[in-house]
Amino acid sequence: MKKAIGLIIVVAFFTACGDLKVSSYLNQPPGKETGRYRAIEIYDFETDLPDVPEELLKRLPDEIANTLKSRKTRFQRVSREPIEDIPAANTVVLLGEIVDYESGRDIKFEEGAVKFGESSITVQIALVDKESGEEIASGQVNGFSSLGFFRSGIVAKELYKNLAEEIVKLITQNYK
Fold it and tell me: What is the pLDDT of residue 76?
């Protein structure tokens, strides 16, 4: 029992002291009416970077899909697979690419100081009309943690949740 209480205190300390921040912006706001889209397909994210955990490319889109499903939105269908029962003209596709990733394991030298344990991630997203292949909107989401990203730890789960929340916010705020 004492070990469980000690573990809870340690977890609470790290999550309270950790600095997990997420921000986003649209490069290209939607140029046309987005309200006609009744479905959204979300695929695994991609990257050309060598150090990005494979798990991130799948778990983040899963978290986005789950967050969208749990919210009341205009989307009748949210899927991680191709949607066949709603016309392509009424379906939008969410694509994502990890364009920057720094693990908390990296050691950096900045302004005469040694820094470690800080990590960051940048995700480029695009909403694409399924029928035409035309990009409707694009944006960028950035995440930063002073505790680092651990592959399956508490910080990683919180990071996925926060990044997904920010991406869903971008999608729903620009859904007119």
Answer: 92
